[in-house]
Each structure stands twice: as C-alpha cells, then as structure tokens.
Design brief:
Blueprint (H helix, E strand, L loop, with lengths): L1 E5 L4 H12 L3 E6 L2 H7 L4 E4 L17 E4 L11 H24 L6 E7 L10 E2 L9 H13 L8 E7 L2 E2 L4 H11 L12 E2 L2 E2 H13 L5 E5 L5 E2 H12 L9 H8 L1 H8 L3 E2 L2 H5 L9 H9 L1
Parallel strand pairs: 1-2, 1-4, 2-3, 4-5, 5-7, 6-13, 7-11, 8-10
Antiparallel strand pairs: 9-12
Length: 302
C-alpha cells in the first residue's frame, strides 16, 4: 500500500510513518523542510509543501492508495488574533488544500483519514460525550468545526472519509505529557484549576493503531472519537503521573496562574473538560491496547 502522510514530520506523523514502514507499506511524506525530514527518516519519499499557501505537489499523490492527515500547529500559545489566524490556516486551510489535491489526482486515493480533536465538544462538565454530541461554542471547538468541514469537502470526490476527534496523546516526545514531565519530576506537579474536570487521553501506540485501522478497514467512515476508555479527572491524572514518576503531585495550579501564562481564553479551555467515550470505534471492534491510564503512562515513559 502507498500512503501519503500530511504532517509526517510531527509527533504523531512520524510515529505513523514508522508504523507504516514497519508493516511494509510505501510512505510518501509532506513537509515544509523535506531536506531536514529526509535526514531523520530517509526511507520516506519526501515532498515539499507549505500547507497554508498551496496544494501538495501532484507527484506526491501519484498512485497513492490512502492519505492520513495530521497537520496542525500547537494550540499552546497565547491566542492573539494572529495566533488564531495561524491555527486556522494550519488546520482548515491546509486540509482544504490537501483535499483539493486529492480530488484532482488520477487515480484518486481511496480513503482520507483526517485529524480533529476532542476540543470540538467544548467544556462538557460531567456529561458523557460521544460522537453524536454537538460542538461547543469556544474558539477551540469552532476551530475543529472548520477543520472537519474542510475534510468533508472530499465527500464530493467519492473518497471514503474518516475524521478522528483525538484526545491529548501521551508521548514523552511532545504534547501534553512532555509539558508535564519537568514540573512533575521536580515535585511541582499537581491538579489544574481544582482538578475535577475530566481529561481525556490516548496513548501514542493506540493513536497510531486507530489511524491505521481507520485507513485499512473499509467499514469505517464518518466521525470517531479517539480517547481511551479509562476516563479520569485531571486530579486522577496528576496522581497517576506522580505515582509513575515516584514524585508527589499535590501542588495545585490555579486558573489564574494559567491565565497569566496563556491568557484567559486558553486558560478557560484548559480548565474545562470532556468525559469522552470512543463509542463508534469500540462498536466497530477496535480494541485499545492501553485502556487504563497508569499502564499507559508506564509504557510511555519506560
């Protein structure tokens, strides 16, 4: 199988490339800096792409069977007007440009698996959240709405589409866990904004397995949540990470402290939560390798 990975040099994208290569697939990668990416992984066929400004080159889509789209800049910055513009371009505009290239390809890829996030739902308190739950109204939620809308443009081309609303991915190389490791190792970790809000999560191996399962299984289409079954609160997450690291996890992070670092709008998002269930994936037979948190943390940090 020949698979195009958009965002192939990022944390999730690089893990996807490794998994595809490991099972014998041919991998085509898109990167702003293909020369640098080639040095890290020379087995991938790299093509240059500026996702916010252009379609991927037509040669990148030649004879491609499927596409995995995991583009998107990090949300962890102050949400100024300029930052919001870049975040939209890195998701909605980039996905639109990718879909335009898919529609123009001959032959077209059979499937697009496109990333979204559980931020789609906004702050849901204690309510159980599945794929039928409507979107929230804050910036992060509407960012996901636009991201998914761009992916659905591929419907007109007759390409099977799977949209994954992904929880924070546990990987020590980046994302949420990397940000938490230093303060927790110093004994300065603890629950955020009281810690009673739910914090969905997924271990990196399960995230990659879910992406490849969606790519391969023709029964799978539409929207899937990508979150482990073992839902926990922020306080429970902090205690588990402290146990795994052998460090106390009792120093609270007040919401005012978040606002001082990230600004009020992002602080509100971080202090919110979603009790997400991956109902459709599990109904279709996907089995999580790491359904509960502490074993997932130990495997990730081993």
């Amino acid at each position: 199988m020949r698979v195009l990975v958009a965002g192939a040099s990022g944390m999730i994208g690089s893990a996807v490339c490794d998994a595809l290569l490991g099972r014998g697939d041919e991998v085509v990668g898109l990167s702003r800096s293909p020369e640098r990416a080639r040095e890290r992984n020379p087995t991938v066929r790299w093509h240059a792409w500026n996702p916010a400004l252009e379609r991927p080159p037509a040669e990148a889509l030649e004879e491609v069977d499927g596409v995995i789209n995991v583009v998107g800049e990090s949300l962890n910055r102050r949400w100024t007007d300029e930052a919001k513009r870049r975040l939209r371009e890195s998701r909605e505009t980039a996905t639109h440009n990718l879909v335009q290239a898919i529609a123009a390809a001959s032959p077209r890829p059979r499937v697009l698996v496109s990333q979204s996030a559980v931020g789609f739902y906004g702050d849901r308190g204690d309510a159980m959240v599945d794929e039928s739950t409507p979107p929230g109204s804050d910036f992060a939620a509407q960012l996901c709405v636009g991201w998914e809308r761009a992916a659905h443009e591929v419907d007109a081309a007759g390409v099977r589409l799977v949209v994954l609303r992904t929880a924070p991915v546990l990987d020590k190389r980046g994302g949420l866990l990397k940000q938490l490791l230093l303060p927790f190792r110093l004994g300065l970790g603890g629950p955020i904004a009281g810690g009673d809000q739910y914090l969905p999560w997924i271990q990196i191996d399960d995230e990659v397995r879910l992406l490849l399962w969606a790519l391969d299984d023709e029964r799978v289409s539409g929207t899937l949540n990508a979150a482990a079954p073992g839902t926990v609160t922020n306080k429970e997450f902090s205690k588990a990470l402290g146990r795994v690291l052998g460090r106390p996890a009792v120093i609270p992070v007040p919401k005012l402290g978040l606002a001082a670092v990230f600004g009020g709008e992002l602080a509100d998002t971080i202090a919110g939560g979603q009790r997400v269930v991956s109902r459709r994936a599990e109904d279709l037979g996907f089995e999580f390798r790491y359904p509960t948190l502490e074993p997932a943390l130990r495997a990730t940090l081993a």
